[in-house]
Write a structure and sequence with these properties.
Layout lengths: L1 H8 L12 H32 L15 H29 L7 E8 L2 E5 L5 E3 L1 E5 L3 E8 L4 E5 L4 E5 L5 E6 L4 E7 L11 E7 L1 H8 L8 H11 L24 E3 L5 E3 L2 H9 L23 H13 L33
Length: about 350
């Protein structure tokens, strides 16, 4: 029995605190626990007190008790104010979680039964492993190739569902070098329990050494350029003159006018939709059914590579974020892409 108790005392009830986001989230959690504990003790204390004080006794004449307006206002207003504090605190954390810093490293994650595929802007690729530098904001852009997954790193207090058909993102800043579990926390099939891996947080020197090899097939943008040429996209998307499809140079994060009068932003989600379903949003001045649909022909990893290539065609201000170890942006990478992609929508 004592051995069992000793074993239980060695089980951590909470994961490590290893990111800049973890501290504020834990503070809100413990505040809510404290409020819940105080309210629980107060309620049960009153129940026990009143049960004892007003228990039935022989030969005691009942007395009519009037209500108390001040008391009723107090127990209505004070809990309401406490709830407002929780709401404001939680909203502040939520909005902060939706706004990654401009200097965040962007890493691409693809969920697939039953693994996490990681792609770095410099071309490095991993499965069920994520390397990040300590003290540097990291943005994960995530997609799913099959079913709903959920990317979770408990030590960083980050978790986000990864839903097929569009991109999801989260960001964090790791603060402590080490090795931390990552999980899929959404049931995704009979091998869901095996869909996990490790996050390796390295100091700047170790991270630079790890990233120095780069990708064997070039940067993410260069891999996208190869796909661009292989699928014949450059035939219609010309470099410096108008072809059958729009020019993609400088397109990323710019407004695009559509034939139906709407204006949309050429962000990652728009580019993904345009690649997989070219008729979803037709650019003003262009005809439908010119560009083939690539749904079923390109994996989510391929789409991410093509989008990285399109980003590299934009000015440095909107180019892809630097890769590991401060690698140059994709636009400035050796052999930088020279073509342009299919019809934006």
């Amino acid at each position: 029995m004592w051995a069992s108790l000793a074993l239980l005392t060695g089980i951590p009830l909470f994961p490590e605190t290893a990111s800049a986001q973890a501290g504020p989230i834990d503070a809100l959690y413990w505040f809510e626990v404290a409020v819940s504990a105080v309210m629980t003790a107060l309620i049960f204390g009153c129940i026990i007190l009143f049960a004892w004080k007003y228990q039935r006794r022989p030969n005691v004449k009942a007395v009519h008790i009037e209500g108390s307006t001040p008391l009723e206002l107090t127990w209505s207003i004070l809990p309401f104010l406490v709830m407002l504090i929780m709401f404001a605190w939680g909203a502040q954390l939520y909005f902060a979680a939706q706004q990654p810093p401009n200097d965040a490293i962007e890493i691409f994650v693809t969920g697939k039964q039953w693994m996490w595929k990681i792609q770095y802007p410099d071309g490095n690729r991993e499965i069920n492993a994520l390397h990040v530098p300590v003290g540097q904001p990291v943005k994960l852009t995530m997609a799913s190739e099959d079913v709903i997954h959920s990317f979770s790193i408990p030590a960083f207090r980050v978790r986000h569902d990864v839903v097929p058909g569009h991109y999801d993102s989260l960001w964090f800043t790791a603060t402590k070098p080490g090795q931390y579990h990552l999980f899929c926390t959404e049931y995704c099939g009979n091998q869901h329990a095996t869909m996990g891996g490790w996050v390796y947080v390295l100091d700047q020197r170790a991270y630079a050494k790890w990233a120095s090899g780069g990708g064997a097939q070039g940067t993410l943008a260069e891999q996208g350029e190869a796909l661009f040429q292989r699928f014949g996209c450059a035939t219609c998307h010309l470099l410096d003159q108008q072809g059958r499809c729009p020019i993609l140079r400088g397109l990323y994060n710019k407004p695009v006018q559509l034939t139906d009068g709407r204006t949309v932003l050429a962000d990652d989600a728009y580019l993904r939709e345009s690649i997989l379903d070219s008729n979803a949003k037709i650019v003003a001045g262009f005809e439908p059914n010119v560009m083939p649909n690539f749904r079923g022909q390109l994996s989510e990893e391929n789409v991410i590579q093509l989008i990285a290539y399109i980003k590299s065609l934009s000015p440095p201000a909107t180019a892809l974020q630097p890769g590991p170890a401060g690698a140059a942006p994709a636009a400035a990478a050796p052999g930088a892409p020279k073509g342009i992609l299919q019809r934006p929508q």
